[in-house]
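I am writing to request your help with a piece of structural work I have in hand. I am sending you one protein, given as its amino acid sequence and as whole-number tokens for its backbone shapes. Kindly check, if you would, that the fold set down in the tokens agrees with what the sequence suggests. You will find the record immediately after this paragraph:
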Amino acid sequence: MKKIELKTKLIILGICGLLLLTLFAIGVKLKYDEKSEDKLILREGEMITTKEVKYLLSFLAIEEIELLKEDTFFTFKDFQNTIPYLANKLSLDEDSIQDKASFKIQEEDQRKAVLVKEFLEIYESCIESMEAEDSLFKENKLFLVGIPDEYKDNESNNIMSTDLGKFDVSNTLDYGSFHINDELRKQEDYKLNYHEFKIDDFINHKVNAVVYDDKILYVKEILAEETILYNAWITKGSDKTINAFIHGVTKQFETRHSLSKEISEVVGDIAVENREVVGIRMKPDRIDGKVLLTDKEYIEVEGYGKIPLDENYKIYKIYGELAQELTNNILVGYETTDFIVANGKIVSALIKGPIKAENIRVLLKTKGFENYYHQGISFTSDKDFSVTSLEEITSYPAGTTLTYNVADDALSKGRLTIRPDDETGKITILSMERSYGNPSYRGAVELAPTDNGILIVNELPLEEYLYAVIPSEMPSYYSMEALKSQAVCARSYAYNHLISNSLKEYGAHVDDSVSYQVYNNHEENEETILAVKDTYGKVLTHGGLVVDAYYFSTSSGHTASVGEVWNGDAQYLIGKLQQVQNEDVVPVASTDKEIDFSNEETFRNFILNPTYQTYDSEFAWYRWKVNLPFKELSNSINSKIGSRYKANPDYIQTLSKNDEGEEVFESLAIDSIGNLQDIQILKREKSGIITEIKLVGDQRTVKIIGEYNIRMLLSPGDQKIVRQDGSEVSQSMLPSAFFIMDKGNTDITISGGGYGHGVGMSQNDAKAMPDMGKEYNEILKHYYSGAEIGYIY
């Protein structure tokens, strides 16, 4: 019996043990399964990291996604959590994001790592869904040339020059090295691998890459196809080596085959395949001559006419340090450039030497300085002269009058150049009028036919150009020191526009109107010629560069800083109070140390009750006043606001409502505000100049930005402006934007000071200062703080 009981007990104990073991095993399995739910499943193939995903998503303006951990692989669970962010940012349905993918995220094991190619399927689908005109993403084939010469001394540089321009590769991802037969290779070690781009691995390779603006986001594939580097400057080639300069990079190529002969300093196309040169097409034809006009489509060269530009046209500076120019800055009027021509097109320009800016080309406007295009021209000369075309030179005796119209056969074959036989001779244009009558011009006059009319360009020495600028910009009876000041300013101003090739598309550097400097509106005379000769070649410089020597007629007693009127922060153009302290001291304090005239009450007192004796105080334009009825002002505004908008769309802004219903000012085409109801000053600068106003009409409310726009729109029209000496004058625009307003029920009274934009030298100050013993160099240093007198030749 006892044996039976013992046996029974043992059986029961065994069963209990088994049950305990089973329960333990089940618990262990449950715990294991619980932990395994989040276990990462690695895969064969290149897996993408969360770090890379975050970087790529940042270009879709998705800066941070919760639950994405650094330093791990990106999983399908992460992918599923990312989709709502993409849908929200791109305004897409969540399902549509996956429409073009070869898989469905929700159907995949959420623990699996995502392959690079899988993520890029969705990412590139999102890019394609964006509006093309709004997207900065592009997929491009690029040949990676190398690091531009200008950056090679910078070890931390990450700028890569390609055949499509320069790109930032500082954070580029390399997915190209893993392509085998258009499939990403398998990842053998399963280690976390951030696909960093190594510059040296890609130079001289063509790749397929996704770019964002000026950044290469990632390389998709290295392409084994031939690339043509068009119009490279080949400095030397022999045996199996070529030295060339292309896209800003000095390079040495190895050739697949030996060169048949040595080559040097020639333009040619270089064919590259698998990092080797497999072919060269040299372009030896070279021409030279004076450049008469440069355009986006062609260049006109004296003796050759208009020659079209090749689509792969390059400009090289081959003197001094070799460089490639990125803009068409071939200076008109000079012969310092040779041109390489192939198949009837200019493929390259070779700048052979620096410019010695001795001649200037002036575009002459029609009567009243209305426009550039003349419908005809009649002229004569006080000396024997010649007319030169592409085909012939015809001579005429002094006093002969010639007339050409747009449709004349003589102009059908191209440009005509009229030049007196004697360098002292002048050409008088009888079909034009200036303040002193029919204007006469030194140098040569060119007639360039266009579809719109005849362009007339006067080319002459820069110094002789100034002879007729000074009397047109400053009264000749001003003192010699004032005229010398004007000469240096005018020379500096002209030089900068000459070098910047300002009107190259018209074959000129400047025109003869207030858009640049008024030229030959008043005749040259002994005083103006002497002022130019006494300052021969002198310009204002700051930091080794010729300054923008702005000037204007009369100050309000305070000049403006350049940044208040135009864009810029030049330290030599800082506004200052023009207070006369005593006969021996010219004040040089800047606006920063002076009274803040942005305060309305302070500036009102300054205009109405001037307590400072300034250099301009005695001149008529120092203070002025005009009364403008709202009705006439409405007409003036409505007649001009459309043209001002076309000229400066960003500076004429209309009050409207955005998508959120908020009132905002934005650039919208406008031709009327209706009846003017109110004018408000929105911004007055520290110098006192107004740079923003609000015009309230019964149809539109607009914000006007910029002193010139303000002066144009608040035109006095038929209303006379009364100057401080009691004289009354008519003006097509307000004299200056240094003013205050007093509004009535039906009109507004504007009281102001000065004439002109207010930046740089006041010409009337320059007249007054010599009376106190100041010489021209002292006057200039007063107005252009820190500037020095330098020479251009």
Remarks:
- The two ends are 133 Å apart (CA to CA).
